[in-house]
Design a protein that fits this description.
With 95 residues, this protein is mostly helical. It has a domain at 5-42. It contains three helices and two strands. It has a two-stranded antiparallel ribbon. Strand 1 and strand 2 (87-88) form a beta hairpin.
Length: 95
């Protein structure tokens, strides 16, 4: 598949990118280079290759999902400049 200047102009318009008429041939050339690279990637045999998350195999650190800091409302609200009825009080923003 080859991209011409009309198609490049259409893609630019759809992407809401202003491209000068003189720059359209260069943009079409870049699109063609990208499509050529994608065609090269499609030629690679990936049968039996597992997807990777990282280039180095690593296991994510995990911890037990338990509540450890519960029942500390008074200590937390002690740092607030203004607290009412167990909540942080903030100035009214919307009328």
């Amino acid at each position: 598949m080859s991209i011409d200047t009309d198609t490049a102009a259409r893609v630019a318009r759809l992407a809401r990118i202003r491209v000068a008429q003189d720059d359209l041939p260069a943009l079409a050339s870049e699109f063609n280079a990208i499509l050529g690279f994608i065609e090269q990637l499609n030629e690679v045999d990936v049968e039996g290759v597992e997807p990777m998350v990282s280039v180095t195999p690593q296991r994510l650190k995990r911890r037990d999902d338990v509540v450890t800091d519960g029942d500390r409302q008074a200590q937390i609200l002690a740092n607030a400049p203004d607290a009412r009825e167990g909540f942080f009080a903030v100035p009214k923003v919307v009328e």
